[in-house]
Amino acid sequence: xxSYQHAYHAGNLADLHKHALLAxxxxxxxxxxxxxxxxxxxxxxxxxxxxxAEADKTGEAANGITRALSENxxxxxxxxxxxxxxxxxxxxxxxxxGSPLIARHFLRPGDVTHLAELHPTEHQALSEITDFAHLHxxxxxxMAQAVCPPTPRRGLLLIDPSYEVKADYTAIPRHISKLARxxxxxxxxxxxxxxxxxxxxxxxxxxRSDHPDxxxxxxxxxxxxxxxxxxxxxxxxxxxxxxxxxxxRRIEALFAxx
Length: 258
Fold this sequence. Notes:
This protein has 258 residues and is of the alpha/beta class. The chain has helices at residues 13-31, 53-58, 65-70, 79-91, 99-106, 120-127, 140-147, 168-182, 201-210, 244-256; strands at residues 37-40, 47-49, 95-97, 112-116, 134-136, 155-159, 187-195, 215-220, 230-238.
């Protein structure tokens, strides 16, 4: 299935959770002079306009990043704010970066990036802004398995599927275990939605059983609209960089006030 387009949801509360933690991890990893690899299995289009018809239709960005900035949820020097400021200086005041452009802000000339996106329209849009990356129009899990362990071996992989395919919930623990065996030093990051039907629960139980030392961060928030099934956001991180646990607790405290 290739119907999902993130433009309707860019900058929502789940993005805020995911991108704040991702930016913090990348800021730490790139503070050291050693080169790294950055990989994404489901990159999307990489850049969004929060005044688009899609964003207006759902209003999710208004209740997410726009509200967070107006109420100063994050300090101005937070890595996500730094990346957002840089992207808006380049693309305009209503731009919002997907994870590829958040990563671009931190990555250096010696770093290597691999981005997978299967949706033809999203892949085309991504190709227009990611001349810094190797683009793969293929299944993201296949790309990750083929590239890992990457060169340089130090690095981070973001797994951020749309979960359109319900089989993802049962397949992801197997994918991650295989990737972790091949790339035992890699920071492997999984984002997942918290849903009212708890379909994510068996997946997380399997992941925690297989990787008991991983970092788990979950936040909850009101549904975007009546009947909307997503009521939270989760991040599961193998080999979390130093400081990640403290950052997750700070972000979780912000969401606890909602």
